[in-house]
Amino acid sequence: MDMQSAGYFVFLGTLVILHRQLAASWRPWMLLAASLLFYAQSSLLNLGIIAIACAINYAAVSFLSGASDGRARAGVFAAIVAIDLALLIAFKYCLGPLHYRLGVSSSLAVALTMPLGISYLTFQMIAANTDALRRDWALGGTRRDFYLFGFFFPQITSGPIPRAERLLPQLSSGDAPTSEDLADGCRLIAYGLFKKLVVSNRLNDYVSEIFAPPSEALNLHYSTVPTAIGCVFNLLNLYADFSSYVDIAIGSARLFGIRLDPNFDRPLLSTSVTEIWRRWHMSLSFWLRDYLFMPLLIRMGDTGNLGVVAALLVTFGICGIWHGASWTYLVFGVIQGIAMSAELTTRRWRSKRLKKLPVRPIKMAGWAYAMSVFVLSEIFFRASSLDDASTIFERLIHVTRIGDAQDLFAHKGPFDFTMYFAAIALWFGISRAFRRAASVSTPAFVLICALLVLFLGHLGNGRFIYAGF
What's the mean pLDDT when you consider all of the chain? Predict the structure, then answer.
C-alpha cells in the first residue's frame, strides 16, 4: 500500500476514527492488527518471515534484559546479531540479485526477493538488543508491544529507525492523541504530499532522462549545462522524495498520539559534509554513530586521528553497501567517509587560519563546498553503474555548449522545464509557511497544499525512492 495513494489515506482515516472510539487498553491491539494488515497486503509469506524474526528478537531482548551472566548475555547477543544480519544478507544481497540475474518470474521468487522494510527492521532490532546488552534499556512491555514496535505501519517501509526506549512506551500506553497531535499530523502529511507530488515527482522526470543509460536516453550526448542541472535536481529530488515519505510517516503516527524521531533538519543549509550527516537521515546517522562508529573506535584504542579516519571509512563504506549491493553505493559511502576524514584532520589548521576572516564569506564557502561534494557524490547514488556515473562526470568535466533547446530541456519541453523551477520556488514558500504555524493555521496550510497538489501535482511516478532500500 503506497503511502501517497488514496487507498492509504482511506485506511489511515478509518484507523484514526476507530482509534478514538476504542478504550486505551484496546488501542495497541488495533494498531497491531492494522500494522499486520498493512504488511500482509505486500506478501503473506514475508509477513510470516518478519513475524518469526520479531519473535526471535523478543526472546533475545527478554533474556538480555533479565539475565545477569555476562558470558551468556554476550553469547546470546552475538547470536541474535548474526541471525538478524544473516536474514538481511540473505534477502537483500543474495536472493534479490540472484532473482534479477536469473530472470526468475514465479510468484514465489518475487515474494522472496526482499521483505518490506527489512533493512530498517534489522537496524531497529540490533539497536534494541544492543541497548539491552548495555543496560541502557530493558524490555518492560508485552510480546504484543514488541511486535507492534517491529511492525508499526507508518515507519516500517522506510523509517525513521526508532529506538525502543522512546517508541515502545508510547505504543503500549494507548493514550489518545491531543488536538496538537492531530493538527501537527495533518500539517506534516499535507507538506509531505506537496513535496512528493509537486516537487519530487516533477524533478524526477528531468533527472531520469539525464541519468538514463545510453540504451534508454533520448539524447546520448547531453551537454554540460543540462547535465549539471540534472545533478542538482537529483539531490533536490532525493531530498524532497525521502523527506516527504518521512513527513507522511511521522504525521500518520502523530494522528495516533505517537511521536517518531525526526529524520531531517534542513540539511541543505549545512556548511560541511559532517554537518550534513548530522541533519540528513538523522535516525540512520545516529544509528551508525552509536552502534557502529563508536564501538569500532573503542576497539581500536588510543590511535588518534588515524583510528577515527579508519572508523569513518568503515562506517560509511557499510552505510553505502546498506543501500544496496552495488559498487556505486560503496563509492558513495566511501566519499562521505573521505570528506569527513578530511574535515576532521584539517579542523585545527582551518580554525587557526580562518578565525580572523569574516564569518559570512567563510560560511558561504563552506556551504558551497559541502553542497558540491554532496551533489557530485549523489551521482554515484543515482547512477545504475560505475560506467554510467563516469559518463555523467565526463559530461561535466569536458565542457560542451548547449546544442539546442531540446538538449537544455532534456526533451521535456519549455513548459515542463519552467515548471521544475516553479516547483522549487514553491517549495521555499511552502517550507516557510510550514515552519510558521503561528502565522499560517493548519486548516489554511492544508488547503494551500491540497490546491497545489490538485493543480500542479505530478501523479504516477511510482514508489518512494527509499522504499527500495
Answer: 89
Cell of 88: 538481511
- Whether residue 235 is found in the same domain as residue 130: no
Give 368-384 pLDDT, tens digit per residue.
999 999 999 999 999 98
For residue 217, pLDDT over 70 is answered with: no
Domain end call among 176, 206, 234: 176
d(C-alpha 447, C-alpha 205), whole Å:
26
Q: Is residue 1 part of a domain?
A: no
Cell of 462: 511510482
- Planar angle of CA 104, 109, 112, nearest 5 degrees: 145
110 and 25, same structural domain? yes
pLDDT score recorded for residue 109: 52
Judge if 303 and 431 occupy the same domain.
yes
| pLDDT tens column, 228-269 | 999 999 999 999 999 999 999 999 999 999 999 999 999 999
Residue 16 covered by a domain: yes
pLDDT digits (tens, 9 = 90+) for 154-191: 998 888 999 999 999 999 998 999 999 999 999 999 99
- Residue 184: name the closest of 254, 246, 261 by CA: 254
Query: How many structural domains comprise the chain?
Result: 2
This prediction has a pTM of 0.92
Same domain for 393 and 269, yes or no, is yes
Q: Is the pLDDT of residue 283 over 70?
A: yes
